């Protein structure tokens, strides 16, 4: 479906709609949603309860709905037709305009159709332009008043999460209905019962709108009386006979300077095998000593790469079970230097064969190149690193015939998806691809593993764990975020709410069990 401009639209706008990059929000329809159930109206079929998870998979959306709500969030999905862009590093800003009470009597009204149908109270700007008009990065959130004055708001307070983080044609995003700072927003609709309207737009480097969606309008019911969602339920324990694997980018050797919080989290999770990234201080013996001192259940065994992050270091495998190194895990991949020449650069990768109760496990920790966007030099380097790692793991798997194979770590999917798929291609024992564990945040219906609001970016799924599903299966898979849990649950776990803020990444947890 394309949004084709009519003559009336062309007269209303001093520029033409670029149909090739038109943004489409599905088929606009009137939707009602509530706390315990969600219903579609206006002649649409009864949908029953709708539970939307922000994971980039739109199959849980009601058919044809562009927006939805429950007691915690308003959800919107949109597509950029004819393009795949990295939403937080787009060459053109994309803005989600929200009329928080569905009324033109509040917020900013723009004379030109169809913007004049909205009184914009809130705007979510993806890749907002810099002051000089050049493409920006990240996400910005503003409250907007009737005069067009903008007040910056915290994206973390409004719990802005979208997926996928990498370039795609479709995106889904949510906005919290129970923020701490309501910033003078209208009382109905977004933050209370009523109506919410909105649309998405795309702008050029001069701030002119060059594409827009059809407006949407939904009816909302009451927000959660308890405020922001905090789950009073501990994450699932490790099943009998399982091997619990945790993958965690611990941010610049942070356990060495803040051991208590990391100790509490790792002790509560009860990991058997830990895949680590960004631990470049010290050598294997230093990491082993840290685990023996801070994580019960040792002695611990550690395999760690040499050097600092720039030299391919910082990645490690720690295990309660004995293990042996694999041959050929000091890797290099082609990368383009600033002068345009191609050089071979170290790859952050380490592997070991772990002697688990399930059988020998080829466990690999990886940390691909960061930053960039789709088709950027950084994205091409991630693909090159993934190919080199895939070749090394394939050789190690053939040499040892290890039945269980896992790769986990910081894949940095901020550009395109191919680095992940190149990494796992054909590495299962039966020749198929390794399977990505579905790691939803425990206590939150979203998939993200990284968040650091001061960076200007919203939470994203940068970390992944893939495994050989021809020989094992995941009994449990989740991301642990202590800030999403209630006080009683945190007390039971002996974890503080801020413990997971010691790193900008969150730990992934996967319980592996035999196939039955």
Description:
There is one protein chain. With 516 residues, the protein is of the alpha+beta class. The protein has two domains: 7-220, no CATH class; 243-514, 4-Layer Sandwich (Deoxyribonuclease I, Chain A), CATH 3.60.10. The protein contains six helices and 28 strands. The protein has helices at residues 7-12, 259-269, 284-294, 377-400, 418-424, 487-493; strands spanning 23-24, 30-33, 38-40, 67-69, 73-80, 94-99, 122-126, 139-144, 150-153, 161-163, 170-176, 194-203, 209-212, 216-220, 243-249, 273-277, 301-304, 316-319, 323-325, 331-336, 342-356, 359-367, 404-410, 435-436, 440-441, 463-467, 472-479, 508-514. The strands form four sheets. Strands 2, 3, 6, 7, 8, 9, 12, 13 and 14 form a nine-stranded mixed β-sheet that branches. Strands 17-18-16-15-28-27-25 form a seven-stranded mixed β-sheet, with helices on one face. α4 links the parallel β22 and β23 (404-410). α4 runs parallel beside α5.
């Amino acid at each position: 479906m394309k949004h084709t401009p009519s003559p009336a639209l062309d007269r209303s706008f001093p520029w033409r709609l670029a149909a090739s990059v038109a943004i489409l929000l599905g088929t606009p329809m009137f939707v009602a949603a509530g706390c315990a159930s969600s219903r579609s109206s206006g002649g649409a079929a009864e949908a029953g309860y709708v539970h939307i998870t922000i994971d980039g998979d739109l199959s849980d959306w009601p058919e044809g709905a562009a927006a939805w709500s429950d007691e915690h969030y308003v959800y919107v999905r949109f597509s950029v037709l004819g393009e795949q862009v990295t939403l937080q590093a787009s060459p053109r800003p994309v803005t989600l305009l929200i009329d928080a009470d569905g009324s033109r009597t509040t917020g900013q009204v723009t004379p030109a159709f169809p913007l004049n149908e909205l009184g914009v109270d809130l705007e979510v700007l993806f890749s907002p332009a810099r002051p000089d008009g050049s493409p920006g990065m990240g996400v910005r959130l503003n409250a907007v008043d009737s005069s067009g004055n903008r007040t910056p708001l915290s994206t973390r307070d409004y719990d802005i999460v979208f997926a996928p983080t990498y370039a795609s044609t479709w995106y889904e995003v949510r906005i919290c209905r129970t923020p701490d700072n309501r910033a003078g927003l209208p009382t109905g609709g977004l933050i209370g019962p009523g109506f919410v309207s909105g649309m998405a737009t795309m702008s050029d480097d001069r701030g002119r709108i060059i594409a827009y969606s059809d407006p949407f309008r939904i009816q909302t019911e009451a927000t959660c009386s308890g405020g922001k969602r905090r789950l009073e339920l501990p994450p699932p324990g490790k099943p009998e006979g399982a091997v619990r694997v945790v993958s965690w980018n611990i941010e610049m050797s942070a356990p060495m300077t803040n051991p208590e919080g990391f100790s509490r989290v790792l002790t509560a999770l009860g990991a058997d095998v830990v895949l680590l990234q960004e631990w470049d201080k010290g050598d294997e013996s230093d990491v082993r000593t840290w685990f023996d001192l801070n994580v019960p259940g040792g002695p611990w065994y550690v395999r760690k790469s040499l050097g600092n992050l720039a030299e391919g270091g910082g990645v490690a495998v720690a295990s309660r079970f004995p293990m042996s190194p694999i041959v050929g895990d000091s890797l290099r991949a082609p990368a383009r230097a600033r002068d345009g020449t191609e050089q071979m650069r170290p790859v952050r990768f380490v592997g070991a064969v772990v002697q688990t109760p399930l059988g020998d496990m080829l466990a690999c920790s990886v940390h691909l190149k960061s930053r960039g966007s789709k088709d950027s030099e950084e994205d091409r380097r991630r693909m090159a690193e993934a190919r080199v790692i895939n070749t090394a793991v394939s050789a190690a798997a053939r040499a040892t015939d290890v039945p269980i194979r896992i790769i986990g770590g910081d894949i940095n999917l901020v550009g395109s998806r191919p680095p992940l798929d190149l990494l796992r291609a054909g590495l299962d024992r039966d020749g198929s691809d390794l399977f990505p564990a579905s790691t939803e945040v425990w206590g939150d219906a979203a998939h993200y593993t990284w968040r650091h609001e001061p960076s200007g970016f919203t939470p994203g799924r940068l970390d992944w764990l893939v495994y050989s599903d021809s020989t094992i299966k995941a009994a449990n898979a989740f991301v642990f975020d202590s800030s999403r849990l209630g006080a009683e649950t945190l007390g039971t776990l002996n974890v503080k709410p801020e413990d997971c803020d010691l790193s900008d990444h969150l730990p992934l947890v996967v319980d592996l069990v035999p196939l039955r």
